[in-house]
Design goal:
It is built from 8 helices and 15 strands. The protein is α+β, with helices and mostly antiparallel strands. A hairpin with a 5-residue loop joins strand 12 and strand 13. It starts with 24 loop residues before the first strand and ends with a strand. 18% of the residues are buried.
């Protein structure tokens, strides 16, 4: 018999006379059980004429023959093996029926002294209980943290969507006003021309009537009306008109269709982002830890400036003097020597860029960064759509929007970049035996990011390294 198997009240195995576990248990005629020596001693004191059960006071036959209960004897031996002891009697431990006789209907408050413990040897159970309670508390805190961050994320998302809706509504109003304004302008122009043509029709109808009258007069009167005839040959009275094509409205429709497609692309990318983004990871410390987050990145030829030459499976870029014969593409950088990656980045990502001789910049940018003209809106790091670390053999500088931040640190031809998109962390490292942090950005990224490279001088190269 094991401790787990003994799950019954100890008083069923205790002698009510000695208050210890039954030893050589024997039953009385009423069914109560006692130690053989205890009950014999009790009855010897009472005398043969006055023998009663000590518990229920039922009269017992004189000189009863006591037979040891074999089953209870075996059970007693098993209990002794696992260390069960009888609890001492305590008046505070009266059963419910006893309390009811004493105090009527008053409730009985639990008292730690009134417990009837089965004193089984279990030295570690309290520690296990405490450790388990700690685990439960930790899990509860995690649940609360998940709920808190989820609620905050929903609230932040609602604010962003509300702002997006507001911007779209404002843009819709602007487009509507522009179209209506152009409509009014074009209609006024056409109506003015239409009115002039209607005046010409009235004049021509009058001339037609006068000519009809002249056809019935003699030649002298006809010649006297030559001015009337000359009016018919006036070149300004040409009936031909020039209809202007309605290109304005066609252009608006094309722009709006493109905008709709861009919004759809962003929303689709956002759905992928939600499914891939997990809990924020602690930032790695060693290069081997960083490499665990390495991602496959290639350069997008459709974004490369004409004076950039891609090679090595679109992982390497070099600045050249002669413009390449790239086909026109709306996503190509037309002025600055820049190129973006084909893959978008979300979640936690790490990559390394190896520079040749010269200077250059490694950047991340949103897909909607401007691509054309000399405006700084299309230059990495000079707008709110991109972030860039620029390096030479002498120093580093970090660019974002209108801010330029000097960066100190050892020079290395290889720069490592770590992105935790969900946490809004962008970190640049000098890659060597020891990873040296050059600059870290803490912000909020609202779109997937793309890697950007910008080699500065002719012959300068930059390569996305393969990490193993």
């Amino acid at each position: 018999m094991t401790q787990k198997e003994v799950q019954m009240d100890q008083e069923n195995f205790s002698c009510s006379i000695c208050l210890d576990l039954l030893k050589d248990p024997v039953p009385s005629s009423c069914g109560h059980r006692y130690c053989m020596t205890c009950i014999k001693a009790n009855w010897d004191e009472e005398g043969e004429e006055q023998i009663f059960c000590p518990q229920c006071m039922e009269k017992v036959a004189s000189s009863p023959v006591l037979h040891k209960n074999t089953m209870l004897t075996v059970l007693e031996e098993d209990l002794n093996k696992i260390g069960v002891q009888a609890a001492p009697a305590d008046p505070r431990c009266a059963g419910p029926e006893d309390v009811a006789c004493d105090v009527g209907t008053a409730e009985v408050s639990p008292d730690p002294y009134c417990e009837k413990p089965l004193q089984v040897s279990q030295p570690n159970i309290q520690k296990i209980i405490q450790d388990t309670k700690k685990d439960v508390n930790e899990l509860q805190r995690e649940v609360e943290g998940i709920n808190r961050y989820a609620n905050q994320t929903v609230e932040d998302s609602e604010k962003i969507f509300t702002e997006m809706i507001r911007l779209i509504i404002e843009r819709r109003r602007d487009v509507k006003q522009q179209v209506r304004s152009q409509q009014q302008k074009e209609v006024s122009r056409v109506k003015e021309f239409q009115e002039k043509k209607e005046e010409q029709i009235n004049e021509l109808e009058k001339l037609e009537a006068e000519l009809e009258q002249l056809s019935h007069v003699d030649h002298i009167q006809f010649l006297e009306n030559r001015p009337l005839l000359s009016a018919l040959s006036d070149p300004t009275r040409s009936s031909s008109i020039s209809i202007r094509p309605l290109r304005y409205f066609e252009d608006v429709a094309a722009v709006m269709s493109k905008l709709r497609d861009q919004v759809q692309d962003v929303l689709n990318e956002g759905q992928t982002d939600f499914s891939l983004t997990g809990p924020t990871e602690p930032e790695p410390k060693t290069r081997s830890e960083f490499i665990q987050y390495s991602c496959e990145i290639t350069l997008d030829p459709d974004t490369a400036n004409a004076q950039l030459l891609l090679s090595d499976g679109n992982r390497k870029v070099r600045t050249v003097r002669e413009a390449q014969g790239y086909a026109h593409h709306p996503e190509r950088f037309s002025y600055y020597g820049q190129v973006l990656s084909k893959e978008s980045l979300t979640g936690c990502c790490y990559w390394e860029v190896e520079w040749g001789d010269g200077e250059g910049g490694v950047a991340v940018a949103y897909k909607d960064i401007s691509r054309g003209g000399e405006s700084q809106q299309s230059l990495f790091g000079r707008n709110d759509r991109s972030w860039m670390l620029y390096g030479t053999s002498n120093n580093y500088q970090f660019y974002h929007d209108t801010l330029v931040t000097p960066v100190s640190g050892p020079w290395s031809s290889r720069v490592g970049v770590y992105l935790d998109h969900g946490a809004g962390i962008l970190s640049f490292y000098c890659v060597s035996e020891m990873m040296t942090l050059l600059h870290r950005v803490q912000t909020t990224f609202t779109q997937p990011l793309y890697v950007g490279l910008r080699p500065y001088f002719n012959g300068t190269t930059a390569e996305l390294c393969e990490l193993k």
